[in-house]
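Q: Could you write out the predicted structure for this multi-component system? I'm mainly interested in how the pieces pack against one another.
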Amino acid sequence: MDKGRLEAFTDGVLAVVITIMVLELKPPHEATLPALLGNWPVFASYVLSFLYVGIYWNNHHHLMHLAERVNGRVMWANLHMLFWISLFPFTTAWLNEAHGEHGQFPAPLPTLVYGSVLLLAALSWIPLVRSLKCINGGAEGALARALGNNWKEKVSPATYLVAIALAFFAPIISCVLYAVVAIIWIVPDRRIERHVMPNP
Amino acid sequence: MDKGRLEAFTDGVLAVVITIMVLELKPPHEATLPALLGNWPVFASYVLSFLYVGIYWNNHHHLMHLAERVNGRVMWANLHMLFWISLFPFTTAWLNEAHGEHGQFPAPLPTLVYGSVLLLAALSWIPLVRSLKCINGGAEGALARALGNNWKEKVSPATYLVAIALAFFAPIISCVLYAVVAIIWIVPDRRIERHVMPNP
Amino acid sequence: MDKGRLEAFTDGVLAVVITIMVLELKPPHEATLPALLGNWPVFASYVLSFLYVGIYWNNHHHLMHLAERVNGRVMWANLHMLFWISLFPFTTAWLNEAHGEHGQFPAPLPTLVYGSVLLLAALSWIPLVRSLKCINGGAEGALARALGNNWKEKVSPATYLVAIALAFFAPIISCVLYAVVAIIWIVPDRRIERHVMPNP
Amino acid sequence: MDKGRLEAFTDGVLAVVITIMVLELKPPHEATLPALLGNWPVFASYVLSFLYVGIYWNNHHHLMHLAERVNGRVMWANLHMLFWISLFPFTTAWLNEAHGEHGQFPAPLPTLVYGSVLLLAALSWIPLVRSLKCINGGAEGALARALGNNWKEKVSPATYLVAIALAFFAPIISCVLYAVVAIIWIVPDRRIERHVMPNP
């Protein structure tokens, strides 16, 4: 089966997710600098979620580039991943809107939930890759060889777990950790690119 | 006429439908677990509607994969199907928001309407398949042979009808039936896949 | 220049327009039949606007199918058409929400504005076709021959004008006329289809 | 790596951005001409932002048309540009909603922020072009030769800077300058088009 529509649908969902989050950026009622700057956590979380969707799109692009065939199992693994990503606008909005006891910000529980959805999206990557390998040459195929062993795929879930564990003690550190993982990923997956497009 | 744009437009509409439903997931104002868990029916119905859109996308992908030609009749049959799917966010929102007499939840009428739109979307599949068969070799063509006889296409409308009939007596059972149909469909349509990509 | 992206962008905009209109379908607060049926004008106008976007998508599909080349002028003519279509959700919402003096519904001015945007969208079709003819063989080229002379393209603007003129006297008749034009167009543009896909 | 998905994702994001801005066009509650006309600044800013997204889409189309290869760096440069464009709905909404001291409209700070985001989007075009040149033949390649030297790319940021500087003294003139830059750009980039499609 052709991978074109799977890519097109994924592009569509990610494009909508990345842009409906901007609807959360409610303009302040006053035309003053304090009013604008008072919005900074909302803006920061928008940047972070934008980066995460960009990272998933980028990695999906790289991954599908190597795959030649898809099947029903791949399609459902892909939808499963899109499901968790589609929750980013919800967790981002809750992180921004709900303050903890005594006005604590970010609040512990929304910080924990934000990280949990990041973790579940990261884990949903695993069955997607597995189903793609399965139909594209197996553990010894071109896809498996090109992917090799990615340390980032191990570091991210571990960091999310640490951040989730810290959410009730130091939620601000959890948020810093979420940002750190994003920064690690922004460097695109050189493994595949090197494989496909060796520099002259 | 080329089927590419029909697929692209369908992908676009389904991608928007699947993601605007997330706008219904209003984050609770309080950063507490009860506030989050109090949202569970909204979340459950989001999952259900996400699954249904995913199922339609999947089946549409499989169906169009076999078709080689489309015409104006196919395009309108497809738009007709998209119309009913575009109502999913509305029926999902009403199911979530409106409580019945004495606070009954789910309320009977929204449960009935939710199922009726599912039924109408399922029925709109029939003229779409028929118009595609008509232009792709007729009742004896490759499309018709590959589709064969799908028991799911008969079981789903019957189950919806039972669920609709139960809506005023036991709406919670209706909702369970809607979920059961979704689960039945999540197994992708093996008939076409087997036909197109026989396992080695 | 390649027409693929022009089609993809148009598909994207129309897919978003057709589905954000559903956000106007606010579910009633009560779970009762009168509450649902009280929404009927909103629902009717959703159906009408859905049909109009579907018609534009269909005709655009047919038109671009014949075109082989596009240029900057075509791209701006296309964006100009998309602009008027992007106003459909606004005019649909105003038609639904604003009542006239003494609660008159539909109110005259929103009815007039709804029709004016339909008229402007219809008129924006003319420079789009002209710019496409210009770059695809001119007045004697395949595109021009296939398009020929379409009576619908003359009847629609005339009917809109009548409906607009009637908006202050009988807005309900204006709305009926808008629906009549939609029904006329739902029959796809046979001229092009016959040309491209002659029946065997 | 193939440029198709980069184009498709960009088309998706721009299509969503251009159409969610219409959600800002709240229909007036009254069905009267003054109520409609009182909306004119909102409408004018919608037209302006629509034009800007259209310009970016057009120029992106022209640019990618010449490029043959993309890599990870191009993908991030492209996402960076999309980020600033995704803020257009926010800055447009703030410009429309917030009045300055003594009801001044447009208010200075939102005018300044609107222009700053336009400036940052314009500047984000530079690394995108650079990364594309780098992978498509370098400073002497076909892409670099076709792009040549574009005076518009120098005039726009300079004009934005002047408009930003004027925002606190004469915000209305700033807005006029934003419109002037849009009009300059609406003439598509003839350099590339001439290069690719010389008139016979």
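A: Regarding packing and overall arrangement: Residues 1 and 69 of chain D are 6 Å apart (CA to CA).
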